[in-house]
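Below is one such protein, fold included:
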Amino acid sequence: MNRWPRPSLAACALLCLPRVGQTADAPKAPPAPVEVAEAQQATVTPHTWIPGSIVSRNDARIAGVVAGRVLEIADVGQRVTTGTRLARLDDTIVRLRVADLQAQLARARAQAAVAKAQADRYSQLLTTHVLSVSQVDEARAQSDMSREDVARITAQLRQAEYETAQSEIRAPFAGVVTERFVQRGEYVNLGAAVVRLVDTQTVEARATAALALASGVKPGQAVSVRAGGQEQVGTIRTLVPVGDDRSRQFEVRAVLEHPDWLVGTAVDVSLPAGATKLAVVVPRDAIVLRERRAYVLRVTRTNTVEELAVEPGASVAGMVEVAGAVVAGDRLVVRGGERLQPGQPIAVLTRSSKVVKPGSPPG
């Protein structure tokens, strides 16, 4: 009687494997931990971003009121306070003029004293009929002219002394020297700029917007200013209520809460572009942006997530207006939703990483 050979252990192992198409029960993945926040209803105003830049309220080309050769000048990058000497000019000629005028003034005062004394004597002799009236009048006129000479030379002396003081060009405000227009040894003409001084502490955002937006912009209004991926709140300090007849634009200036950007930084300023309306807003982190669409993940009653397509709109204090099936009160995933799929179970976490029951408000 023929007997079949016994199968080897390897063959038994192969026979015990499941056939193709057969699947074993795999363990279910644990719920994905997420943080949620509720959609809200708020009044929003459509905004538009306009380009601008960070400027200083004190940015000046500092010039002298006298001419002269430059003896000293501040270095580029030097930080100065109000009254600091920025440049010193050669004041030799002015000082010589001061000395000359001082001598002229002393002489004029002496002549004025003599003329006054003579006029007083002539006035006393007028009653004795020794002198004629015309002689007395001439003496009085001479005294008056001598007094006017003293006043004229005094004014000239004050001007010369002022020019002597102005030979040291000082900073009218605190700031940083950003540019030098002359060098040591060069001759500076009257009114020529010597340095550029910029106040880096008092800065603001400057932007020009279309005249159509002017009706919605008012001083004291809060605006958003962004640059380099950062965004902060500013307050409109003023707007120039005169539009350019060529560009049809007007100027807006906004003060920043934290003026950390350098002068000259390109920024975008958000200005109102329409009427205020009531809309649904969601946290910015709740919106998932893809190449051609945007959506949010809403937590269902069964503790899973569902995907809702939305169309983002205006921003309001960290919230974003959305148009779609989202309603106020919906719980939306704001953390941990990067790889979630619709229908996937979740575990809602508070900020202290504790699991909370479905429907409980997030911490």
Notes: The domain at 32-46+277-348 is CATH 2.40.420.20 (conserved putative lor/sdh protein from methanococcus maripaludis s2 fold). Residues 225 and 269 are 5 Å apart (CA to CA). The chain has three helices and 23 strands.
